[in-house]
Amino acid sequence: MTMAVGGAEIFPAGTARPGDDRRLTRVNTNEAVNVLVTGPLLDSERWRRWWIAFAVSAALTVIFFGSMIYLFVAGIGIFGNNSIVVWGYPIANYVWWIGIGNAGTLISSMLLLTHQRWRAAINRLAEAMTLMAVAIAGLMPIMHMGRPQYFYWLAPYPNTMGLWPQWRSALIWDFWAILSYLLFSIVFWYTGLIPDLATLRDRATTRAKRVVYGALALGWRNSARHWHIYQTYYRTMAALATPLVCSVHSIVGLDFAASLMPGWQETIFPPYFVVGAMYSGFGMVVVLCAAVRWGLRLEALITMRHFDIMAKVMLMAGTVMLISYATEWFSGWYSGRGVDRRFLGFEFAGTYSPLYWIMIFCNCIAVQAFWFRSVRRSLPAIILISVLINIGMWLERILIVWNTLSHHYVASMWRLFYPTLWDWLILFGSLGFFAFLYLLFVRFFPVVSMHEVRQLVREETAS
Amino acid sequence: MSLVLLAEFEREEALVNAVGQLGERDYRVIDAFTPYEVEGLGGLLGASPFRVRAAMLIGGLGAAALCWFVEWYSATLGFPFDSGSRPPNSWPVFPLFPFEFGVLMAGVFGFAAMLWSTGLPSLNHPFFDSPLSDRASQDRFLLAIDIPSTARARRTLERLLADMGAEAIEEAEL
After folding, report:
1. d(CA A172, CA A285)
2. What pLDDT was estimated at residue A185?
3. pLDDT of A5
4. A49, A70, A184, A443 - which has most CB atoms within 10 Å?
5. Cα–Cα distance for residue pair A356/A281, rounded to 1 Å
6. Residue B140's closest chain A neighbor by CA?
């Protein structure tokens, strides 16, 4: 028995042959969803391009961990940090990665709570991005510490030194925010995966795959009773995830805002950081969606409509960023304080000003192209602007650190930051490590939430 | 464990219709197996997420309360450190840690309660012995009905299920 789907043929469950999914151009049955998503995972012969990408990412991962080992041996003197600009790349990288990490759960949970069914095609990709980005973000402060072997002192535990954490310190808030968020995200992501792991178990072509996916699926039987309990739990997790995500990046904002430095001591930081996180996260999700869609041939599932909607969200976030920057500038000028006005002048015309102007272009100007439908419907244009947004958001993070610390209250403490080779190796190594983890996820787990897409297909065919 | 009749339907509507009709005729529907959540069906079959909700509430609030106590104890009694003459019991900054950890624990407790309520993990459940079980996770809708005590009543039920659109009917253990 065969069924016609979008002009192509598909086969009854369990009889799909490797490569059948390549002929699917439209998804309007449950089996079409299954074939599209599980087809690549169960066919081990079509991963040549994946191996090339994996080898490149593995090389960068070696560089990342090699640099980290050298850092732990030699100390943070290998970075461009100096006695004035005491924060450098690791802190900027941390804020950037945690921002990207926040967006995944934010996208997934907010869209679930607001019944945006289209999320089904991208939420798994976004949640996986969160896990990996937050894990990498968590490594950055440890690298920055100088004495990484003592990081566990941030946890409260009875000890012979009689020491307890300093709860008034932003470092402690960060520790608990990252740790809680990472573990919560793992539980949320895994819970969403369980029904799809059961599908993989039931379609597995080898015993080994059946055993592994079966164990990971915990014996999920698709019972209606189980669905009822499962969905209650999953939706409650989504409801908890939204304030958690907002709190995590607000706390990152407080790392700066709780200080007394010009350019940092601003009440706008927490919400502005949350929007920035969503902005850079959507940028990264677009890039990942485009790559996965191309690599696994998921054009029928991740459609241009998804990119169109994400472009609109980025347009909104970019506009909010512009308003946030403008509020910062106005507050600096309106405060009348010499130090704030000097800081403002340093941002626009100081040593780092070319980077600042590039940041404004990437974060505020380039995204305005999304007002045009033709741009939102052009995948190369959306990818280009998303990459620019990610570059712009990284520049924002590093400039928050550099501009303030390089331009203290006292002129005798004005000093610049010059990045070293190790700064760059850690930055690009972390990108490679992210790609390494993400490629593993893509190879072994369903990248699209099949059970949610099936529900979507049912609703669309019924209407 | 009990023996049931598993009826396979191609469409969700046929399954929902069958649940309604069988209920009206006093057949006992034990469970249904669907490739996605059919809204309202689990509640109709008597599933209750109460344990999950209770566990999340208790786990979350309990963990948050414990965190606040640790903060208060360590800041005022364990290690009262004078930082810029701020009071040791600086409660305005205390909610951050309990909130983060409380949300995490609500999630962890809820996950444990979900497993408890559903009886998972259950890797070797007899349901998997049925040849129909594989497609419940893919594209078919299964209904499990208590087998009537007499052979005649069973034949009547099978005919009824076939009339309602069942594509296959098998005996299975649940």
Report:
1. 29
2. 92
3. 34
4. A184
5. 21
6. A30
- How far does CA A143 lie from the centroid of its chain? 20
Question: Is the CB of residue B158 less than 8 Å from the CB of residue B169?
Answer: yes
Beta-ladder partners of B4: B146, B172
Which of B:98-127 have CB within 8 Å of A? 99-101, 103-104, 106-108, 110-111, 113-115, 117-118, 120-125, 127
DSSP A192: H
Check CB contact of B146 with chain A, cutoff 8 Å: no
Task: Break chain B into its structural domains and give their ranges.
Answer: 3-47+126-173, 50-118
Residues of B in contact with A162 (CB under 8 A): 78-79
Mean pLDDT per block of 10 residues along chain A (463 residues) reads 33 45 59 84 81 95 96 92 90 92 83 80 89 92 86 88 89 90 93 94 90 94 94 93 90 88 86 90 93 88 88 93 93 89 92 95 95 94 96 94 89 90 95 96 92 85 72
Its CATH architecture, for the domain B3-47+126-173, is 2-Layer Sandwich (3.30)
Residue of B52, B81, B137 with shortest CB distance to A229:
B52
- Closest residue of A to B83, CA-based? A168
* Angstrom distances, CA of residue A327 to CA of A320, A330, B114: 10, 5, 46
> Can you list the domains of chain A with their CATH numbers?
1-46 (no CATH), 51-449 (1.20.1630.10)
Q: How far apart are CA A359 and CA B18, in angstroms?
A: 61
Higher pLDDT, B41 or A9: B41
Which residues are paired to B3 by β-bridges?
B173
Amino acid at site A183:
L
What tokens does A263 get? 């350019």
Residue B31 contacts A where some CB pair is shorter than 8 Å: yes
- Among partner residues B37, B46, B107, which is closest to A188 by beta-carbon distance? B107
Interchain pair A166, B41: CB under 8 A: no
Q: Where are the beta strands (DSSP E) in B14-69?
A: 29-33
Spell out the alpha helix ranges (H) of A258-303.
269-296
In chain A, what residues touch B41 (CB-CB under 8 Å)? Answer: 224, 227-228
pLDDT of A463 reads 67
In the structure encoding, which two tokens stand for residue B31, read together?
Answer: 């469970």
CB contact under 8 A, B33 and A165: no
User: Which residues lie below 8 Å from residue A226, measured CB to CB, with a gap of 6+?
Assistant: A220, B42, B47, B118, B120
- Residue B138 with chain A: CB contacts under 8 Å: 13, 30-31, 34, 199, 202-203
- The answer to whether the Cβ–Cβ distance between B134 and A223 falls below 8 Å is no
Estimate the share of chain B in helix, then strand, then coil, as percent rounded to the nearest 5: 55, 15, 30
Alpha carbons B11 and A197: distance in angstroms, whole number: 22
Q: Residue type for B23, please?
A: G
Say how far residue A416 (Cα) sits from the centre of its chain.
Answer: 30
Asked whether the beta carbons of residue B108 and residue A183 sit closer than 8 angstroms, the reply is: yes
Spacing of C-alpha A337 from chain mean position: 37
Measured between CB atoms, does B16 come within 8 Å of chain A? no
- What is the DSSP secondary-structure string of A77-119? GGSS--SSS---HHHHHHHHHHHHHHHHHHHHHHHHHTT-GGG
The answer to whether B62 and B98 are in contact (CB under 8 A) is no
Min CA distance, B92 vs chain A (Å)?
A: 9
Exposed/middle/buried for A245, CB within 10 Å: 0-12, 13-18, 19+?
Answer: buried
Contact assessment for residue B138 and residue B92, using Cβ atoms and an 8 Å cutoff? no
